[in-house]
């Protein structure tokens, strides 16, 4: 195992004198062409780590190949990377979690560097940001989507991350065990990033090489389908984490529509004293009422969201920080 000791844990956890346990966790779906080489690369880079492969209903020989390569293989029957990550954090016991994809696009030789960054800077997540991500199987749609979503994330949640979709991450135990994952698919990385921004969890980024898949390995990401799912996750997380701004924006939009519809009626009334389009007037009043109710709901939900943040922060802090200085 690693020669660095961790800090004191709660009852039932490992003692202060125990050495840090490192787990390499690889979510996989039909990665028979690459999984053996990925396992071998991480074993060479982190010889003391335990390597887990979580197979997500692969129709090829991914699980058997991983088992022959010496990894601990477990299965998650619910389809989607989010379900796999939730299972990983629930079942795997470790002090340091190194998560990567099983497609061979991430550089395993940099795993010790990412771990050292986490220890030296006392952070709870290090993200290996992807260099040359635009070369992902030559897909320009993926590159464009990455740029748009990263900018949207910065505008909505802050500038803590520059690559919210990277699957190459190192986590502390307290992050893994306190992360309340709710998403089921590729949007899980977005949820991790929002969770970190919301709670103010200390994180770091480090650029890493990003390779191209082998010709016999196909990407599981679907540009439009998964893009819409990620966009939906953005708005869902905005509703959950910033309800005052979310519902306030809806209320403002409805108010502007109502004003646009009612302005000609007001001008006509001022000139003639008549309201010629009564249905439009009723619609405008109705929109103003709905906008008011929406804004009030946002203010109420904002108080509940603050309470949820406090609760999640308490759960996060219930896991003591590792003392890497020992």
UniProtKB/TrEMBL annotation:
Q: What one GO molecular function would you report for this record?
A: transferase activity
Q: Does the keyword Ligase apply?
A: no
Q: Which SUPFAM superfamilies match?
A: Nucleotide-diphospho-sugar transferases (SSF53448)
Q: Does the keyword Plastid apply?
A: no
Q: Which CDD domains match?
A: DPM_DPG-synthase_like
Q: Where is the Glycosyltransferase 2-like domain?
A: 24-176
What's the protein name?
A: Glycosyl transferase
Source species = Henriciella pelagia
């Amino acid at each position: 195992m690693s020669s660095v000791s961790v800090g004191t844990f709660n009852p039932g956890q490992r003692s202060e004198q125990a050495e840090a346990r490192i787990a390499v966790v690889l979510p996989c779906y039909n990665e028979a062409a690459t999984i053996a080489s990925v396992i071998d690369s991480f074993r060479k880079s982190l010889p003391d780590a335990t390597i887990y492969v979580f197979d997500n209903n692969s129709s090829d020989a991914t699980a058997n190949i991983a088992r022959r390569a010496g990894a601990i293989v477990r299965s998650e029957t619910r389809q989607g990377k989010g379900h796999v990550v939730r299972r990983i954090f629930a079942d795997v016991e470790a002090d340091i979690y190194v998560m990567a994809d099983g497609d061979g696009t991430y550089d395993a030789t940099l795993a010790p560097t990412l771990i050292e960054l986490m220890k030296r800077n006392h952070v709870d997540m290090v993200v290996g940001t992807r260099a040359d991500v635009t070369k992902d199987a030559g897909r320009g749609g993926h590159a464009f989507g990455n740029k748009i979503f990263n900018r949207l994330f910065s505008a909505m949640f802050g500038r803590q991350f520059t690559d919210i979709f990277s699957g190459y991450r190192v986590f502390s135990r307290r992050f893994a065990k306190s992360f309340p994952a709710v998403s089921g698919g590729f949007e899980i990385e977005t949820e991790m990033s929002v969770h970190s921004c919301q709670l103010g969890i200390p994180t770091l980024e480090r650029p890493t090489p990003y390779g191209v898949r082998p010709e016999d390995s196909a990407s599981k990401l679907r540009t439009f389908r998964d893009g819409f799912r990620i966009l939906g996750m953005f708005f869902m997380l905005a509703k959950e984490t910033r309800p005052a701004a979310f519902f306030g924006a809806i209320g403002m939009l409805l108010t502007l529509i109502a004003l646009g519809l009612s302005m000609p009626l007001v001008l006509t009334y001022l000139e003639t004293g008549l309201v010629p389009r009564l249905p439009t007037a009723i619609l405008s009043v109705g929109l103003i009422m709905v906008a008011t109710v929406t804004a009030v709901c946002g203010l109420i939900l904002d108080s509940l969201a603050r309470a949820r943040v406090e609760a999640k922060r308490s759960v996060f802090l219930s896991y003591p920080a590792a003392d890497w200085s020992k």
